[in-house]
Amino acid sequence: MVKIIFIQPDGQEQAVEAEPGVTLMEAAKLNDVPGIEAECGGACACATCHLYVDEAWREKTGSPSQMEEDMLDFAFDVREASRLSCQIKLTPELDGITVRVPAKQF
Amino acid sequence: MNVEAFSGQSAGGEGPIETDVVIIGAGPVGLFAVFELGLVDIKAHVVDILDKPGGQCAELYPEKPIYDIPALPVVSGQELTDRLLQQIKPFGATLHLGERIDELERLADERFRLKTDAGKEFVCKVVVVAAGGGSFTPKRPPLQGIEGFEGTSVHYSVRRMENFKDRDILIVGGGDSALDWTLSLQPFAKSLTLLHRRDEFRGAPHSVEKMRELVGQGAMRLLIGQVTKLHGADGQLEAVTVKTKEGEEHVPVDVMLPFFGLTMKLGPVADWGLNLNENLIPVDTEKFETTEKGIFAIGDINWYPGKLKLILCGFHEAALMAQQAYKYVYPGKKLLFQYTTSSSSLKKKLGVA
After folding, report:
1. Where are the domains of chain B?
2. Is B90 helix (H, G, I), strand (E, B) or coil?
3. CATH number of the domain located at residue range(s) B140-260 in this protein
4. Is B205's Cβ below 8 Å from some Cβ in A?
5. Alpha helices of A6-82 — where are they, by DSSP H?
6. Residues 137-166 of B with CB under 8 A from A
7. pTM of structure
8. Cβ of A46 under 8 Å from any chain B Cβ?
């Protein structure tokens, strides 16, 4: 299992576990993490599963593809750390990953 | 995509369009309803807010593969739409695109009167709500107080260009809508600023080139950053705060046009007395009729015990809905159940006899 820590805008932390192979978005939805909407169901077509990957984990998650970068144009308050969680597949190397949920999805 | 064959007919200002059925939503399920209704001689008009048929398949994932359509091991959203359009062609349904049904009322003679946001009216015997996740509406940036500026200073579409003459315009976004309106409004504007979060654009390369030319000539400004705050009062925008790499900038503008794509909102369906439950319309599983006689709901918008939001379930719902719709359109007439494979009358309707 891969452990993920979601931090809400108010600082509240929620640690969840998910099988390797599922996406970060799916892990959030399966564990009812608030603030991740995923309106399109993981098709990289809506930008409502936007979150910020903590600095320490950014190398391991890699950078967004062209398609994801384009879709991030539709997100709000996009930063250097911004990713669409449907595009990050969980691997054992990501065990312990910390991500922040934005104040608002669109 | 061949839409021409379906469009063309309009109200022409001569009163409402009279038809058997109005289908709300031209997604896969709405389109297939045309087929199932057509087989039992029921004529339909289809209305959709998008400027193209296909619903989510066309708007959200035209190029993405779908793997669970029976007998099509893999099909893209666009191909599924195109194939459905081909399949329903014999029935000559009219598609009314770029319009949303805003009003629905029952008339004294039990028929329904519907009206679109463009003022087009329909009178029909049966209504089929196949509205999926709701109607696609422009995304509203979650900026504090933005509602107060909408319609006066903040616009999500341009209806009349004159309204933007001699204004200080801010356009936000990096796709074709943002670029096209930048190029169209720049000649009229007092000043125009295009704001985008990065110096890369999704829009057509020649539009990007033209925009950069204008920037080079000093005819407009390109700003890389994001809006964080709106300033103004009584619906009149005066300036916005933009966060850039360098810091914050105060940009005086009186009009803002944000282009952040579309999202699905339930819309007017909520006001039609259909006893919505968590934004879904409860129906029975025999006819897929709502609590209102003659109004059906099929596809993602409906709910019943065991409901799955799958295109294939919507197809099934359309077939059963058509059986009951027949009873309202042809009261007292017996419907003979037939197969397209063997029935000569069905083959004739399909144009293959």
Report:
1. 17-137+263-349, 140-260
2. helix
3. 3.50.50.60
4. no
5. 24-30, 58-61, 66-72
6. 139-142
7. 0.82
8. yes
